[in-house]
Amino acid sequence: MEGQGTQQTGKKVIFSGIQPSGTLTLGNYLGAIRNWKQLEDEYQCIYSVVDLHAITVRQEPAQLRRRCTELMAIYLAAGLNPEKTLIYCQSHVPAHAELAWILGCYTYLGELQRMTQYKDKAQKHAANLNAGLLTYPVLMAADILLYQADLVPIGADQKQHLELTRDIAIRFNGAYGDTFVVPDGYFPKVGARIRSLQEPARKMSKSDPEDTYIALLDTPEAIRRKFKRAVTDSEASVRFDPEGKPGVSNLMSILGAITGDSMEKIEADFAGQGYGAFKTAVADAVVAELEPIQNEHRRLMADKAYIETIMRASAERASAIAARTMRKVRRKVGLAPFSL
Ligand code: ATP
Ligand code: LTN
């Protein structure tokens, strides 16, 4: 189904979310949040703090609560304008869970078992291999389809989940007639897959050990130290070759994502220089990029009442959009009508 935009704005809809499951990394920033701001005028953007997704892995309750507020503050500190963009907490709109249940009945077990993220997480969390880890992508599909999103900005790691969302939407539309907009992915040209500083074969992930990632709120000293210790190779030449030189190429991607420079330009700029100077330049660029966000974040965290006001207002507006989809879905599926 073609997107018609929200009734309020007539603009195409963008939806994305981040789990409050750890400190945000430079990967989350470059692969996701940084690109969100640029979309805010052209689209009706809806960005969620997806706390229901986060509890697929055990979370300490007080910490989870704090991280939700912290992530909201990061959305705001990264420059999102809450007058235009909806930023809210997923669990504040119960329709996410309701639609996830319904869509789960239109998703095959085989489809879920094939998901790479599920296979990875099943290995990592063998002691708590709960059903939520398997049905995680159904909840993600519900997030997206609930708002009739046209575009979903995500990092490359979420491509498979988006494909599944499309399949579920097409299947449902096929069975009941046009109900959901079939969304497209929106991938950043640079920064889509930032890798671990210690094991560049893996993506940079906030649930890995601390020295493998740069946290958005790391101090400049910590950022410099981590880049200094980042894995490279013994060739001592700054050359972009993701296969042969994954560590150096990852650092080049980070620098390029921030400065906008091409890999060729970075190669030329650092020709004949060792890794020391190069790593310092990468660290300087990251420190300068993050500093204003960190300052604004600190300011916002001192005003939790303001964050809560935004969270509540956005959740109300999001609920109204979600309710429209739910009325349609309930009717199509044949759930008994009711009004309170
Ligand atoms: P976890 O490692 O705990 O599973 P995560 O770090 O992958 O979590 P998410 O909340 O799952 O974080 O992802 C938020 C957004 O950040 C998604 O759009 C995802 O594609 C993007 N993202 C995550 N890691 C990276 C990365 N290393 N490079 C680029 N984008 C990333
Ligand atoms: N699964 C995503 C987070 C996420 C999301 C979404 C992204 C949950 N729901 C809806 C885009 C749209 C992740 O792990 N990065």
UniProtKB/TrEMBL annotation:
Its main location: cytoplasm. PROSITE patterns: AA_TRNA_LIGASE_I. The keyword Nucleotide-binding applies. It catalyses: tRNA(Trp) + L-tryptophan + ATP = L-tryptophyl-tRNA(Trp) + AMP + diphosphate + H(+). CDD domains: TrpRS_core (cd00806). A motif ('KMSKS' region) lies at residues 203-207. It comes from the Bacteria. Its EC number is 6.1.1.2. Catalyzes the attachment of tryptophan to tRNA(Trp). PANTHER family: TRYPTOPHAN--TRNA LIGASE, MITOCHONDRIAL (PTHR43766). NCBIfam families: trpS (TIGR00233). Belongs to the class-I aminoacyl-tRNA synthetase family. This is Tryptophan--tRNA ligase.
